[in-house]
Design brief:
Elements (H helix, E strand, L loop, with lengths): L1 H20 L2 H21 L11 H30 L2 H6 L7 H28 L7 H29 L2 H8 L2 H6 L12 H8 L2 H13 L9 H4 L1 H25 L4
Length: about 260
């Protein structure tokens, strides 16, 4: 384990050095995230009605936080696919290093990126008038649930990137982030959808995290009588753990079978 962690940190440092030498992609990602929050908050927000009343921006921002954890899948997939197509992954596999180091390093680097992104988005939300009305402990738990969801999505992205293997397939898979993200309670209540579609949206893992952090932030929520909605905090823990348990072994197995 020490060997894996040490080699994994070396791979993480490689990614951090890339960001320092080529900061454009990181800065663009941060700027794009802020722009989307401003568009929803100021351009579309005037037409939105919060279920049960309340400030729309306080309703919006938890959904924005969770959506950006989901959109990180594309970043992870792109980095994995680029290393494969450029032969970097094959070079790593030929070196005397832990087989888990490449995947661990990728996950560590993406978590650092996610913390930075979430910090900028929280600052943007505060500037827009959003605030957490919950206790300090509840606020910390909400942030932890967001990062836990992101860690689960990292392993989904690693596996998808390894399966895709090239940028064209990554782009095709990446388009699925939008229907998955919008088919949730991030921006609108599932009760406004057809009943069968609303049930799918309620059981979307993203919806559980959104509902949980709205509750912990004491922001306006959508309510709902379904079991999954009433137990949002529990499901916001179960869903990420289930995804990690499924996709991390699949990613490791796929990595070992590359080029065979």
């Amino acid at each position: 384990m020490r060997w894996a962690l040490a080699d994994g940190w070396t791979i993480t440092r490689r990614e951090l050095i890339h960001w320092v030498r080529e900061p454009g992609s990181v800065l663009f990602g941060l700027a794009f995230t802020v722009m989307i929050a401003l568009i929803f908050g100021y351009l579309l927000g005037g037409a939105m009605t919060v279920p049960g009343g309340g400030n729309y921006r306080e309703f919006l921002m938890p959904g924005m936080f969770a959506m950006n954890m989901l959109f990180g899948i594309g970043t992870t997939m792109t980095a994995i696919a680029q290393d494969i197509t450029q032969g970097v992954t094959d070079r790593f596999r030929s070196m005397p290093m832990s087989p888990a180091a490449v995947l661990l390093g990728r996950s560590f680097a993406d978590m650092i990126d996610s913390v930075l992104l979430l910090s900028v988005l929280i600052a943007c939300g505060l500037a827009m008038g959003w605030q957490s009305n919950g206790s300090a402990g509840d606020t910390a738990l909400a942030i932890a649930l967001l990062l836990m969801l992101r860690f689960a999505f990292i392993w989904v992205g690693i596996f998808a990137g390894l399966m895709a293997g090239n940028q064209a397939m990554v782009t095709a898979i990446q388009t699925m982030e939008f229907p998955i993200g919008f088919l949730s309670s991030a921006f609108i209540p599932p009760s406004t959808m057809p009943s069968w579609l609303g049930a799918i949206a309620e059981w979307n893992p993203l919806s559980s995290t959104v509902a949980a952090i709205r509750e912990l932030f004491a922001n306006p929520g959508i309510g709902g009588d379904s079991w999954v909605t009433q137990n949002a905090i529990l499901m916001a823990v179960i869903w990420p753990l289930a995804m990690i348990a499924i996709f991390s072994p699949l990613a490791v197995r796929r990595y070992r079978r590359l080029s065979r």
